[in-house]
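quick one before i forget lol
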Amino acid sequence: MRGAETATTRTGRPAFFAPLLELLAPSRCGVCDAPRADLGGGGVCRACWASLPVLDANAACPRCALPGNGSPCASCRLTPPAVTRTAAFGLYAGGLRTLHHAFKFSGWDLLAAPLGGRLAALALATGITDGAHALVSVPSTGRRNRERGYDPAMLLADETSRHLDTPRRALLSRRRDTPPQSSLSAPGRRANVKGAFVASPRARGRVLVLVDDVVTTGATLFAAADALCAEGAAEVRALVLARTPESA
């Protein structure tokens, strides 16, 4: 957790006592708050990792990963996005929603490693990175990255890449800071990110896999894909941590 421990622990005790305290009183799980005896896991117990609401890729829209019957959803049939395939690890609900909030908004950057490992396993299971030249993270705004001290999607992409033969490449940037998408309607989200991204000419002719944390309407993901395609990307796919149960 970036910035969580310095000279003292969260309880105010001197940091040099922390190893002894961990032996005598194991830390608590960041999801269920139960004592956590096992090491690693990003501060989350094994039971909570095992109970995450994992999505069945075969029962989701192949373009935006919206839960369904495996066929393209109504929105993607009406307006096919530039993303040809999307795979999502789980539903944005329950423990996964809690983990996402801790990772993105509370400084728990140590969650990037276990979450990235799960994204890599999903990529291998679905074949979504087969033949891809690179992973490309969907960049957050500069202001929000400075506030939290890191770019969540970039950390996810880096950790995912460590388990695959697919490198991460910085082929996408933001033209401007945009207001948070969470407070906007679906049309407002699309307008908010339209033209917000610019891609590198190095995207030309490449098969690329976008990596992001959450997909709701797909507006941000699709705008990023549009920018890559505008620079001549041969194909753009997507690998995301969580998908909301329905488009807002």
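fyi The first helix runs from residue 18 to 24.
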